[in-house]
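User: I'm putting together notes for a lab meeting next week and I want to include a structural view of one of the chains we've been expressing. I don't have a solved structure, so I'd like a prediction I can at least talk through. The sequence is below, exactly as it appears in our construct file.
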Amino acid sequence: MEDREASQALIPKFKLDRLLNQDQAGRRITLLGSIDNKPALLTAERAAFPSDPKTLEAFHRCLSNIANLGTNDIYHWYLASAGSVESDPTRLPDLKLNLIYPCTEKHIKKYSPQGLRTVTEDPETYLNHVRPYCVRQREEGRLDWVFNILEGRKEQKDIIYRDLGGRDGKDKDEAFLLTPDLNWDRKTLTSLHLLALVERRDIWSLRDLKKRHIEWLKHMRIKVLEATVTKYPDIEMDQLKLYMHYQPTFYHLHIHVVHIMLEPTGTQAMGKAFGLENVISQLESLAGGPEAGMADLSLTYTLGENYDLWNEVFLPLKSMSNG
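Assistant: Thanks for the context. Below is the predicted structure for the 323-residue chain, given as structure tokens.
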């Protein structure tokens, strides 16, 4: 008991020297300081959110200091404080909130717990089954938020860089822009997450990339890197990762730009994230003329069991092959 009381008395006596490290996308910090003139390390990590129904019912009512960071179509994002700030008006926001309203059944499936499957998609499967699925997804209007950005209706003040396309700025097929991803808090550099969105609408995913796009991809890569380190001078080019998802969340070509220290999640894992440099290298090594491309390759990746692509395409194909 005495040991516990003595231990508890140590924290209030901690005197800060400096921030030593920050990781877990800013959720964990390690401080260097002293207690009674002896060096001490203090690591603080935000506790897990409670999961009992009564606490969750009251969660949103406990939020304060809510500040909207942006709104685009059904997507809204905020900073907020957990608990009241009346006792401390200077208290900084400690939560990043993303709101999807109104959400769809697809959103509910995406964010629900689910098992994962590894699938191999050969060129024939892509052409006959996956491509028609992509067409159906685009016809559902899930790209309105992307077009809002590209057409100048939303998030224009957030755009970090816009390339008009080509050396003279007149090749619209090569135009693109760079903007913060809605999941980034806009301040923690080690969790930086940006999106490069292409202007053209005929390239939906890395499957549509061909050898004739190699120089364009290289141009995008260097311009994105330059724009990022110009905007955030504390970051260097070799601290950035550029990748594309396959399957992507939405079917309009985009490149993710993240800080290399951003903790890997399922979306950055092997089988989901394809490095831009590796895609360029694959295209360069492909046999054939300028029309040869990623659609000619077999790709292996992971799918969630809640995804329509698994239930509508790969699960039936698996059942047929096992039958």
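A couple of points you could mention at the meeting. Residues 214-231 form the longest helix (18 residues). The chain has eight helices and 14 strands.

User: Perfect, that's what I needed.
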